[in-house]
Design brief:
Layout lengths: L1 E6 L4 H13 L5 E6 L2 H10 L3 E6 L5 H13 L3 E7 L14 H22 L8 E5 L12 H21 L5 E5 L8 H5 L7 H4 L5 H13 L4 E2 L3 H12 L2 H15 L1
Parallel strand pairs: 1-2, 1-4, 2-3, 4-5, 5-6, 6-7
Helix pairs in contact: 1-8, 4-5
């Protein structure tokens, strides 16, 4: 049985991946949708043409992950594509953020993504794909977004590294690094802080990010960066010393206060 597994499928980028892939992948037997909200997953499943399985679970919970892994074994599933979209970010000064929420962000964005990748790799075959949702926040350290940016830097680095390792097996990994995307992400992220207005000027629709990510994955590209401003930012982050960029961020921040 050929399956696609999507985490964070109940909203935002994960939901968009499911919708676009439903129309494009006729050789897939089932979509396996993973998120905490059973109702939202069931609603999405009802929209899809493909047969779906809903796993209403927290990917940071070992028992839920064990059940998912056992289901793969029982169904003798071949994971053709794993898409790790589950994650969240919180803005604000590090010392003022809620500690449990901050540590939860690390567990979800880094540990759970790593665990999911580790557990599903044995079910992958030649030409399987892994799409990891990183962020342009991975390119540089980001004051008032410190832990989120660090977590996405981990995802980006991890994805590039295992992509190099898995290439010999014919398994291809793409790190998706969008800038701001028009999803419910900011409903949570801006609870304790606000993003720079200039960042929101670069906001794009999730449909555009997902379309490019799928094409980049198809062409075995290790990184997918959407929109000219974010591509320019990516290049600048490689050339300009990060200390200078951080000074520029502080200047922009002070101008908005």
């Amino acid at each position: 049985m050929n399956v696609i597994v999507i985490t964070g499928a109940s909203s935002g980028m994960g939901m968009e991946f499911a919708r676009q892939m439903d129309l494009a992948f006729s050789n897939i037997d089932e979509f396996w949708l993973v998120a905490r909200s059973r109702d939202k997953l069931a609603q999405l499943a009802g929209e899809l043409v493909h047969k779906t399985r809903v796993f209403a679970m927290d990917v940071t919970d070992k028992a839920g992950m064990d059940r998912l892994e056992e289901a793969l074994k029982e169904q003798k599933a071949i994971v053709r594509i794993l898409i790790n979209c589950a994650g969240y970010g919180i803005m604000g000064s590090f010392e003022n953020l809620d500690r449990s929420q901050t540590l939860g962000m690390v567990r979800l964005n880094c540990e759970a993504l790593t665990d999911m990748t580790y557990r599903l790799l044995p079910f992958m075959r030649q030409n399987s794909r892994i799409i990891q949702l990183a962020s342009s926040a991975a390119f540089i350290p980001q004051p008032d977004f410190a832990v989120y940016a660090a977590s996405k830097a981990y995802v980006h680095s991890f994805s590039r590294a295992i992509g190099a390792e898995l290439k010999e097996r014919g398994i291809y990994v793409t790190s998706v690094c969008p800038g701001p995307v028009d999803t419910p992400f900011f409903d949570i992220a801006e609870k304790d802080g606000k993003t720079l207005a200039v960042k929101k000027l670069t906001m794009v629709k999730p449909e555009k990010v997902v379309d490019l990510a799928l094409r980049d994955s198809y062409y075995k590209r290790p990184v997918s960066v959407c929109s000219l401003p974010i591509k320019t930012f990516n290049v600048a982050a490689k050339i300009v010393p990060h200390g200078l960029i951080l000074k520029g961020i502080n200047i922009l921040k002070n101008m908005t206060i």
